[in-house]
Amino acid sequence: VADRVAVAIEHARLEGEARELANVVRRIGEGVVVADAQDRVIFANRAFLEMVGVGAERLLGRSWTEFLSPAQDVDALMAQMRSPAYHGEVLLITAAGDPRPVLVTLSTTEGRDGPQRIGVFRDISREHELRFRVIREQKFRTLGSLAAGVAHNINNRLTPVLGWTEMLLERLAADEVIARPELEHALKVINQGASDSVET
After folding, report:
1. What is the rounded distance in angstroms from the CA atom of residue 62 to the CA atom of residue 145?
2. pTM as predicted
3. Which is it for the CA torsion 10, 14, 15, 19, positive or negative?
């Protein structure tokens, strides 16, 4: 009797721990999927259902890989994910057709009815958005520096053009005679500055 009571107590304890663990998995912020060897969903927690935008009744028995975006090489990705353990970034498509980048960790374990795949999915949309924002800001900064450099070069090339042009116009307005060598030099400087500006 004592042995049976001890077994019953141990069984109750293990059942209690299993229930607690199941509750944690259901409430955790990461998407969790348990699938059979053909990737058909046996269990999916609320976070994964929200991630792909479907209800549990529509997902159970379906392959979670149906949500892989065709924008990536799905065949090559599936071959990689067939290994006993996989960790990498994939692009899912929600039921509404929105892309959802996720970091997925897959592992194979032995279940009651054969091998099972356990997947943990972390939505990294926010990280992608921040990364793209940083890249975009860096591009704008680079373009700004480039534009400032070009403007500086053009300004340097046009300064003698404007200087010589203004001087010649002032002297002509004052009816001054401009010697031919001086005029030739001014025109060469003006021509060179304009050519350099066109090149820039």
Report:
1. 53
2. 0.57
3. positive
